[in-house]
Write a structure and sequence with these properties.
43% helix; six-stranded mixed beta sheet; alpha/beta; D-Maltodextrin-Binding Protein, domain 2; 330 residues
Length: 330
């Protein structure tokens, strides 16, 4: 009996030692982190939503955590290149990626060989901001509503042209969805960014563009372009006169581009929790929220379970939507 009692005591002591040791280890990881600069990859060129989120959050987190958050722009392949880099990076809390609709959901339906899985290769820390897109067109177009635009496109196949940024961007996807879901023959004209598109729109060489609402607002407020519809479920707060796509009665289409910070999947839980806590603190700042919103953005407030559920829903939704519109993975 004494032998059994001694063995039981040894077993209980070992278990307690393991759990106490694990707890202290996790505490130590959280206490020591960060002890060197942290890299945030924005999988796009400077400017735009990915870059904005990386720089606004990076600057605030640097201030809060006492270590520099260095933003690295890694464009290429419609957000593929930068995202693939972090999918293969060490899971130590020093390599983060700005995740958005493009690289975490749309790419699943656009590429056969993605090189990463949004659901199994990354942990979403927090989603922080969502932006709609606005369909704008040159002032002298012979129609003023999205319904009339689609009617014109059907009556004049191949005549209307849409500006389209890179294949993985929301601008390209929305133009493609209008073409596929609207069953119209429109020409998609590729560009390497939004600014060249606006030059041609204002110069009368291009007809339409579905761009980020924040960027488009400047041209609408100055009355340089027409606004036809916004892609979100609700109207943009700074352009309440422009209907949503669904409100126009033309297409059952809703799309917002969202952004947040992600980390490789095997990052220690203590570091994950530290980063989530620091992002939550940063998002309490009115100045940070204002910088991220840029007038038309919608602040996202979700816990990690809600974030994971949303991500799963988006990854399941968009490949089906793209396929139904005739967009096949390449």
């Amino acid at each position: 009996m004494n032998f059994l009692q001694n063995m039981l005591k040894i077993l209980i002591s070992s278990i307690l030692f393991f759990f106490i040791g694990s707890h202290l280890s996790a505490q130590q990881i959280a206490t020591d982190y960060p002890n060197k600069p942290i890299r945030i990859v924005a999988p796009s060129a400077p400017g735009g939503g990915f870059d904005l989120v990386a720089r606004v959050l990076g600057s605030k987190l640097s201030e809060q955590m006492g270590q520099q958050f260095i933003v690295e722009n890694r464009s290429g392949g419609g957000t593929l290149a930068g995202t693939q880099v972090i999918a293969k990076a060490p899971a130590d809390g020093y390599h983060l990626i700005v995740g958005g609709l493009s690289n975490m959901a749309l790419n699943v339906g656009l590429h056969k060989n993605l090189g990463y899985d949004p659901l199994t290769d990354f942990i979403p820390l927090r989603l922080v901001i969502s932006h709609s897109y606005t369909l704008v067109g040159r002032k002298d177009l012979p129609f003023n509503t999205m319904k009339d635009m689609l009617s014109y496109a059907k009556a004049n196949p191949g005549k209307l042209n849409f500006g389209a940024s890179g294949p993985g961007t929301g601008q390209f996807i929305l133009a493609s969805l209008i073409k596929g879901m609207g069953n119209v023959d429109i020409q998609l004209v590729p560009y390497k960014g939004a600014q060249p598109v606006y030059i041609d729109l204002l110069g009368g060489r291009l007809d339409l563009f579905f761009d980020n609402t924040t960027t488009a607002r400047t041209y609408l407020e100055s009355n340089q372009l027409k606004g036809f519809a916004v892609s979100s479920r609700q109207r943009a707060p700074d352009a309440p006169s422009i209907p949503t796509v669904i409100e126009t009665g033309t297409l059952d289409l809703e799309m917002e581009t969202w952004f947040g910070l992600f980390t490789p999947v095997k990052t220690p839980q203590a570091i994950v929790e530290r980063l989530r806590s620091e992002i939550d603190i940063a998002m309490q700042s009115a100045d940070i929220r204002k910088k991220l919103q840029q007038g038309s953005g919608r602040i996202i407030q979700m816990n990690h379970l809600e974030t994971e559920a949303m991500l799963k829903a988006e990854v399941a939704k968009w490949p089906k939507v793209l396929k139904s519109a005739g967009i096949v993975p390449e």
